[in-house]
Design brief:
With 611 residues, this protein is an alpha/beta fold. It has 2 domains: 378 residues, Glycosidases (TIM Barrel, Alpha-Beta Barrel); 139 residues, Jelly Rolls (Sandwich), CATH 2.60.120. It has 13 helices and 27 strands. The chain has an 8-stranded parallel β-barrel with strand order 1-2-4-5-6-7-8-14, surrounded by 6 helices. Strand 6, helix 7 and strand 7 form a beta-alpha-beta unit. Helix 11 runs parallel beside helix 12. It is globular and about 75 Å long. The relative contact order is 0.11.
Length: 611
């Protein structure tokens, strides 16, 4: 029977029986969050060592540019993988975790800070921030803490004390199951923590919040919360979980018609719903969490999405790949963009779904297309010593994103009329996925793949965009924008849209409508015509650009829209930089021109370039 579990470091083969027992017994337990489940399941067999941990050996880090996005990784106390971490590919480590009581005191510190000082020192030596995670997984406990001024004050004292004692850089708040009755208290708690950090002489200390993939209780009012925090980590996993009736990917990226029968939610939908609550500039604070683990069940058959009989437990990425390399065939599903496998033993059929390197790459591309602040990992060490997931981080986030043709960063140019084109919104190799909801019709789900056309106008008149190819399962809609922003929508239409124009630049966006959580993607044709505008617009040898006829500018290639944090502008010929090193998550300028992504209004200064 292939190994179901393989947690590296503190969890060894000697504890596998305990892990399996914990997973088996958990079947009858009520559904709990992944973070809590792993803490109970794996933390219980990995008691922290009270003695200081030896310093990790000097890592042979790759020589590469600074990260252009946040890479925020949770590091659980039960994982001993300091030697496996590539610090050059991390911006934040969130050490996990100090468990909180409802009165704001610490219930269990799990060895912080005494046994983890070397991890903090090594991270700091490599320019990586370290946050201390504080957990509370009881809805009633959360309400008791945040709805009491006394308990909030105690909790804030506990948090600041832990940060100072461990020389950490901030707090990661992981309160899961926040009830609607605690929404106001939770927001107040975060605001008071923000103020208290400044008052304690820690103005550069950051606050991150772990947010649910689906806010069932409506307790996370992002318009109120985001000004007080620096990072909002969306836990993009547990869409399928231990108690699911059907087997499926924990971190399902998208749903096609098959998967829609089993779930209505996905990471695409979670990000779109989040985007609807915030400004586009505030996307700089959003981190999309991805799972470095999978879920396994005993199932009725070996079919995709088979009905489950019982929960086998969580399986780390390293354990899943070990199973594959042990002879179980790796399977792939395009509908959800997920890896999976199935095998049969004396207990029956088993299925496991997890994110392999290909699935991770799709998610990282989506994070770039959305203009998010970065990605998050649950959890560091779950990949053991395997390099491929680090390689995907390097490929995605150590250089400005190069958009695909038709992405908002590389729109198709339109300088004369009529203009005709044909594309396929089901083609994942083209277009982008930035726009979710437009101001023209903010309640319409337009968060599928889109194709952007930059329309240059040098005369007064009107333009009409017409899309063809819609069928019962294909629905591509038209939006005309005055700028590359959801708020700049002038007019939209299901098939046709017309707007009066004056000289300037406009954008026609053909976007995929999402019906009942299923992307209505497929082939389309586009025609853009003009009324009152001559064709050609300009004399021979000139083109229309920015509302004027002029000689064509040299093609500088696609504009990724991603700011490098100012490092290139100060580079010497030998590649060195003058002044302090800048990264996208630097909180203050410090004279080096770094974009600010701290709390309050400073988030916009980074993403104004990303947008």
């Amino acid at each position: 029977m292939p190994s179901r579990f393989g947690f590296p470091g503190a969890l060894t083969a000697a504890t596998a029986a305990l892990v399996l027992l914990a997973a088996t017994c958990a079947t009858a337990a009520p559904a709990i969050s992944v973070h809590e489940r792993h803490l109970r399941q794996f933390g219980a067999v990995a008691a922290p060592d009270a003695t200081p941990r030896p310093a990790p050996p000097a890592a042979e880090h790759k020589s590469m540019p600074p990260l252009v996005k946040m890479v925020y990784g949770y590091y659980p106390y039960w994982v001993s993988a300091e030697e496996e971490l590539d610090y050059s590919l991390l911006s934040h480590i969130a050490w996990f975790a100090i468990e909180m009581n409802s009165d704001g005191t610490a219930a269990d510190t799990h060895g912080w800070p005494g046994s983890w000082t070397e991890l903090v020192a090594t991270a700091h030596d490599n320019g990586v921030r370290v946050d201390v995670t504080f957990t509370l997984f009881s809805s009633t406990g959360i309400a008791a803490l945040v709805n009491s001024a006394t308990n909030r004050a105690t909790a804030i004292d506990t948090i600041i004390g832990a940060i100072e004692d461990g020389s950490a850089d901030g707090a990661a708040i992981d309160f899961e199951g926040v009830p609607s009755s605690a929404a106001d208290g939770f927001a107040t708690f975060l605001s008071e923590l923000d103020d208290a950090l400044v008052d304690a002489g820690l103005p550069d200390a950051q606050i991150s919040v772990a947010g649910p993939s689906v806010d069932w209780s409506g307790a996370f009012d992002l318009a109120v919360i985001l000004p007080s925090i620096d990072v909002y980590f969306i836990m993009g996993y547990a869409y399928f979980y231990s108690g699911s009736s059907y087997a499926g990917p924990s971190g399902i990226l998208k749903t096609d018609a098959f998967w829609r029968d089993l779930t209505g939610y996905s990471e695409l939908r979670s990000m779109a719903d989040t985007g609807a609550q915030i400004t586009e500039a505030e996307r700089a604070k959003i981190v999309m969490g991805v799972p470095y683990y999978g879920q396994q069940w005993t199932t009725t058959t070996a079919d995709l999405g088979a009905a489950t009989l019982s929960d086998d437990g969580s399986v780390t990425y390293a354990a899943a790949m070990s199973t594959i390399e042990g002879g179980v065939g790796l399977l792939w599903d395009d509908g959800a963009l997920t890896a999976w496998y199935a095998f049969e033993d004396g207990y029956g059929w088993h299925e496991a779904y997890f994110d392999d390197a290909e699935a991770i790459a799709w998610k990282y591309r989506f994070a770039n297309e959305q203009g998010l602040g970065g990605i998050g990992i649950w959890a560091l060490g779950y990949d053991a010593s395997r390099p491929e997931l680090w390689d995907e981080i390097e490929a995605a986030f150590t250089a400005p994103y190069v958009p695909h043709p038709g992405d908002k960063g590389a729109p198709f140019p339109v300088t004369d009329f009529p203009f005709d084109d044909a594309q396929d919104s089901a083609d994942l190799g083209a277009g982008g996925m930035y726009f979710n909801f437009y101001s023209c019709a903010p309640d319409l789900d337009e968060w599928g793949r889109e194709f952007v056309y930059r329309v240059e106008v040098c005369h007064d008149g009107a333009i009409t965009a017409t899309v063809g190819g819609d069928t019962g399962t294909v629905d591509n809609d038209i939006q005309i924008l005055s700028a590359l922003s959801e708020e700049a929508c002038l007019v939209r239409g299901n098939v046709e849209a017309t707007t009066a124009v004056t000289p300037g630049t406009y954008y026609v966006v053909v976007d995929t409508y999402v019906a009942d959580a299923v992307l209505q993607s497929g082939p389309f044709t586009l025609s853009i015509t003009a009324d009152g505008i001559p064709s050609p617009q300009c004399p021979d040898g000139q083109v229309c650009q920015a509302g004027e006829c002029d000689e064509p500018e040299p093609d500088a290639g696609p504009d990724s829209g991603i700011d490098d944090g100012g490092t290139d502008a100060d580079s010497d010929a030998d590649g060195d930089t003058d002044g302090p090193e800048c990264t996208p998550w630097t909180k203050t300028t410090d004279g080096c021109g770094c974009a600010q992504v701290g709390r309050g209004a400073s988030a916009g200064s980074l993403l104004s370039a990303i947008l």
